[in-house]
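Job type: complex structure
Entries:
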Amino acid sequence: EVQLVQSGAEVKKPGESLKISCKGSGYSFTTYWIAWVRQMPGKGLEWMGIIYPHDSDITYSPSFQGQVSISANKSITTAYLQWTSLKASDTAVYFCARPRASGSYFANAFDVWGQGTMVTVSS
Amino acid sequence: DIQMTQSPSSLSASVGDRVTITCRASQNIKSYLNWYSQTPGRAPKLLIYTASSLHSGVPSRFSGSGSGTEFTLTISGLQPEDVGSYYCQQTYSSPQTFGQGTKLEI
């Protein structure tokens, strides 16, 4: 079964660092892009950025460039989303998602999603 | 960034109704438009890709149409399990922006 399994909920204080994970299984991890999508409480979906685990090619949304870091470790088929200094406004559910077809994310819908990781940032 | 605008933002309908949600793009995205549904506390699910292709396992009451800048999602014969939020997404260019969502109540 193709699946993405994300790490568990996190509660952090402003200024702390955090790295959440998304483990892929049941498919060739290195040949499919993996995206990160934010959903703030009661709000819609926001595309943050995407990584190609084969060579760690990354594209960020301008809205998130410099605010987060995306990475992947293909040896353990896991992608990551990282913050160095969290803010209260980072409170959200974060999803990872995989496109339908391998090799490109252009013109390619997301058909496999992780279950989401709730990140709460509060003093 | 390409802006995606959905209408309406919310709607209420009855079981058996035909429901239409519209998504407009701020520039021509050809047919690179997808539709997702989401229920509270769950991950989004793909319904329609490239404007009109039904994703595997999705009931045939869901259909999509459009190209260029205007697209529609139609649910023919609304079912109780269709309650939730619906999002369009363009995959023509990066960042692959989503619409703001349409909340469907029954």
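Summary: Chain B touches chain A through 26 residues (CB under 8 Å). The beta strands of chain B are 4-7, 10-12, 18-25, 33-38, 45-49, 53-54, 62-67, 70-76, 84-90, 102-105.
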